[in-house]
Amino acid sequence: MPDFEQLLVILTLVSGVIWVIDRFRRRRRAADARVSWWFDLGRSLFPVILIVLIIRSFVIEPFRIPSGSMLPTLEVGDFILVNKFGYGLRLPVAHELIVPVGDPSRGDVAVFRYPEDPSQDYIKRIVGLPGDTVSYVDKRLIINGEPLEVERLGAWRGDDAFNLLREQLGGDWHEMLVHRSPDDRQLSLTVPEGEYFVMGDNRDRSSDSRFWGTVPRDHLVGQAFFVWLSWNGGPNWSRMGDVIQ
């Protein structure tokens, strides 16, 4: 069963062939000659499908947040936009890099294809770049031997089980959640070349690089930058239009 991207490519190719055939046949048939409805539909939809494919493949792609692993930055039901241009232009379906544009930065909220099952899209925050030594000890992130600066903001929405904190990563501040339980997955590793270490902002409720390893560069889809809709049983007006930090 093809996924949406594959289906979009197939529709573009089929409608494109119909459009080309129509351009050649139009010269030979009478202006009032009738054509079948499916042929007419194919040639009419080709420009629209092509534009959608170009925008979705090379510029911006929408995603929906299915879990709470990125709380408080992203909530279940957030519909976000992802900038695909910033990490380089890749061919649809094949995902081969054709135009290098830029590299991910520490602190980016990135969508990527899950290394253990590339058919699934995940979203996490990039905390470690190629060559970085990343340590996570006592729920504190340490990059290249330097503990990140953290500020405590209090309980999360009145739930004493979770602490809301601010963390400075890549020169910018972002909020995160830490559970007050002593359970912790401590580690220390050097990020391989061409790969990235990612973590969820909901540190104790996230499946990320601490469990299944780093993300190869060619698995990165793009950087999340905008919440255009938030709907979880109803609209959350306060989140619509938020810039993702």
From TrEMBL:
Enzyme class: hydrolase
Keyword terms, alphabetized: Hydrolase, Membrane, Protease, Transmembrane, Transmembrane helix
Main location, first listed in the record: membrane
Record's catalysed reaction(s): Cleavage of hydrophobic, N-terminal signal or leader sequences from secreted and periplasmic proteins
Gene3D superfamilies noted in UniProt: Umud Fragment, subunit A (2.10.109.10)
UniProt-annotated catalytic positions: 69, 124
Secretion signal span: none
Family: Belongs to the peptidase S26 family.
Protein name: Signal peptidase I
Organism this protein belongs to: Spiribacter aquaticus
Gene for this chain: lepB
